[in-house]
Backbone:
């Protein structure tokens, strides 16, 4: 095995980390070319270790990684973007954890590629700026679902496949998205979705972030979008997201 094969250099986002042994840290990393990988950062918990401060949660890091049978070893690490606001602001940090949890749930270790990596890095950056984190979350959810093959149907009825008319419709996670009143009749599933919410979801699903980030969305519409998207995601995953429960607790405590 050549030296090139024994190790590789890559950008990586630290998705999760936990103490490992007496002084090491076990990291779950997202890379653009190797998907999600697990690696040990040796001595990272020692104050004088070279990697201390370079393997922080959510950080974008330039790494030299030595291959291992089960776990890789981080040989070198240099922070490229720390995304400090995500560790200094509890709300934005919770939204960052939401992005990471979604990616973790919808992708296997070898399934992620450059598109998912770029989306996450960009979204972490958007959360550090003055953008509404709720808008970042909804946009990220729709783009990630599209990459994972679970994009909700927003332009045609999820049952009859006919184009949707410009009127209030119904959103049915079980049918993959929006269904029309005609096909919803007699069914015990599907919740109302306002025309404004449908138009907004369509816009988020089909426009780049540069066009989306200038939107001004009122709180009632934000609540409807969140309710619909999280119902769809919960249906797909067959379980609730821990980050969402924590965010809701934070909101209640801030009232």
Residues:
């Amino acid at each position: 095995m050549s030296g090139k094969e024994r190790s590789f250099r890559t950008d990586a986002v630290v998705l999760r980390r936990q103490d490992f042994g007496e002084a090491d840290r076990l990291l779950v990393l997202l890379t653009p070319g190797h998907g999600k990988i697990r690696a040990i950062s040796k001595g990272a918990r020692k104050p004088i270790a070279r990697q201390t401060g370079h393997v922080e949660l959510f950080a974008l890091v330039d790494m030299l990684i030595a291959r291992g049978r089960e776990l890789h070893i981080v040989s070198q690490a240099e922070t490229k973007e720390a995304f400090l606001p995500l560790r200094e602001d509890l709300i934005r940090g919770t939204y960052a954890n939401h992005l990471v949890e979604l990616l973790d749930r919808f992708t296997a270790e070898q399934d992620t590629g450059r598109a998912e990596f770029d989306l996450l890095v960009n979204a972490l950056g958007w959360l550090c700026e003055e953008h509404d984190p709720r808008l970042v979350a909804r946009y990220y959810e729709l783009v990630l679902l599209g990459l994972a093959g679970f994009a909700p149907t927003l332009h045609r009825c999820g049952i009859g496949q006919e184009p949707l008319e410009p009127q209030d419709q119904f959103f049915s996670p079980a049918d993959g998205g929006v269904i029309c009143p005609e096909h919803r009749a007699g069914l015990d599933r599907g919740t109302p979705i306002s025309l404004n919410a449908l138009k907004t979801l369509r816009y988020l699903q089909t426009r780049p972030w540069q066009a989306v980030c200038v939107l001004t969305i009122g709180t009632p519409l934000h609540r409807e979008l969140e309710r619909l998207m999280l119902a769809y995601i919960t249906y797909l995953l067959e379980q609730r997201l821990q980050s969402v429960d924590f965010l809701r607790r934070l909101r209640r405590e801030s009232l």
